[in-house]
Amino acid sequence: MKRDYLEDYIQYLSLEKACSHNTIDGYSRDVKQLCTHLLENGIEPNEADRESVQRYVHQLKGSGNRPHSIARKISSLRSFYDFMLRERYMEKNPMSGIHSPKLGRHLPDFLTQEETELLLRMPKRETVLGLRDLCILELLYSAGLRVSELISLEARSISFEQGYLRVIGKGNKERIVPLGEIAVAMLQNYLRQARTELAKGADSHLFLNRSGRLITRQSVWNLIKKYCKNAGIKKNVSPHTLRHSFATHLLENGADLRSVQEMLGHADISTTQIYTHVSRKHIRDVYDKAHPRSLERLVEIDE
Q1: Active site (annotated) includes residue 234
Q2: Kind of pairing, strands 174-178 and 158-159?
């Protein structure tokens, strides 16, 4: 490239958009793949037209990429070329007329309340790592955190007196998430009994590995897999599964959608609506208790 457009774009995402490291890594990876493809075909990124980008998208489809992956890449490229136009590196947007594949709504697995309780009984709370792992599972479930939010927590993120967490979510947006008494008690025990043993340096993060360094996303993923196996849970459980379970259980037990939206940190309530797949039994219970023509209500009236 004659000019490092990708580097300019990364600086824009970091300095002006204040995107997270994960977002910047994902966008820059997608854009770099397109730039490599264009340059291999003798086309500079600022000289791309609709046809050249369309050929790249067709190549993605032919390479076996899933629709969700292609849609994400197209979103990244659209952001990149919006930036290119904004900076006057180009006069025409090559993404014009290029559409993302239609996506069906995918509902990830969630744990039942019984499965969740079973999972939370697996860590050995009498050990340092077991107490740490228990707190990790508890926060993913009882606060509905993303794994990136969890590992970025510091001790100062917790207000024990008021019972809440201060969480930095997507787009560097801060939100307040309530904590239950069980989670507060577990965190107090962890900080008193376990974290002091794990801390070997000046790292201020809440959750550390056995070497005293920040625990990784992969480590959190692996410990969830381990405890699910120990619990005999056959579902494909990830950190997001616990977040999904958090929202599902709140809605099943009568929480309103707006409150769940706030706790999850969703900018748009339409994103939260994916969690409204409450059980048929819950819907039936609501009907029986609320509708004037339900059998239960009619029996009460007759009596």
Answers
A1: no
A2: unpaired
* Least confidently predicted of 3-7, 51-55, 99-103, 210-214: 99-103
275 in catalytic set: yes
Where is average pLDDT lowest: 20-29, 113-122, 282-291?
282-291
Q: Which of 78, 170, 213, 277 is catalytic?
A: 170
Residues of the chain with pLDDT > 70: what percent? 88
Of 5, 141, 190, 275, which residue is the catalytic one? Answer: 275
Catalytic-residue membership of 249: no
Query: Which of these is catalytic: 73, 132, 243, 244?
Result: 243
**pLDDT attached to residue 1:** 43
Cβ atoms within 10 Å of 108's Cβ, excluding its own: 14
Residue type, 260: V
Please pick, among 217, 240, 277, 297, the residue that the annotation labels catalytic: 240
Angstrom distance (rounded) from CA 73 to CA 70: 5
Task: Give 144's pLDDT tier (boundaries 50, 70, 90).
Answer: very high
The answer to whether residue 243 is catalytic is yes
Asked whether the beta carbons of 161 and 154 are under 8 A apart, the reply is no
Go through the domains of the chain in sequence order and give each one's CATH number: 5-86 (1.10.150.130), 114-274 (1.10.443.10)
Active-site option among 73, 146, 244, 249: 146
Active site residue 89: no
CB < 8 Å & 24+ apart, contacts of 174-181: 175/262, 175/263, 175/265, 177/143, 177/144, 177/145, 177/263, 178/143, 178/263, 179/142, 179/143, 180/142
